[in-house]
Amino acid sequence: MKKIEAIIRKTKFEEVKEALHEAGIEFFSFWDVRGIGSAREGRVYRGIVYDTSTIERTKLSIIVRDKNVEKTVQAILTSARSGETGDGKIFIIPIENSYRIRTGEEGDESLYIKGKEE
Question: Does residue 108 have a pLDDT over 60?
Answer without folding.
Answer: yes
